[in-house]
Inverse folding.
């Protein structure tokens, strides 16, 4: 199944669960499209999640990583005070890179959420994203950070 079909399925699930108009899945390159996509969102954006982004290990491919400085700056502009940024990955070097880009370009804008503890899992239901389920079943760590805009 391709990305476009997955997005369609996710939007159907959101509608069936009563989240139509509150949750929207789109297929896009968020690195360059985030601000323009969310500029027409009908209401305040309360949460931005970056979950298990492609690690792009080779230095020459780092420019393809999802959370580039411009995207971080867009997130700062889009989130209202109290809005949240949730970062999650199973690759430690990616976790460090996510943390570093936020610290370098939005240190002033975010603080750790009060719920953020070393053992916290920020899920309200036992369902997990497929990647998270696979990683935790293997006993591997998942690195998470929940930030709140000041």
């Amino acid at each position: 199944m391709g990305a476009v079909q997955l997005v369609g399925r996710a939007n159907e699930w959101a509608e069936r669960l009563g989240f139509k108009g509150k949750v929207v899945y789109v297929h896009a390159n968020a690195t360059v499209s985030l601000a323009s996509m969310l500029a027409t969102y009908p209401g305040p954006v309360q949460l931005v999640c970056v979950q298990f982004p492609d690690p792009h290990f080779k230095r020459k491919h780092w420019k393809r990583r999802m959370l580039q400085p411009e995207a971080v700056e867009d997130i700062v502009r889009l989130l209202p005070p109290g809005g949240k940024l949730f970062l999650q990955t199973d690759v430690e070097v990616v976790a460090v890179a996510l943390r570093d880009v936020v610290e370098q370009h939005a240190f002033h804008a975010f603080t750790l959420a009060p719920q953020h503890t070393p053992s916290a899992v920020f899920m309200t239901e036992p369902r997990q994203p497929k990647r998270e389920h696979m990683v935790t079943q293997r006993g591997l760590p998942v690195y998470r950070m929940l930030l709140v805009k000041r």
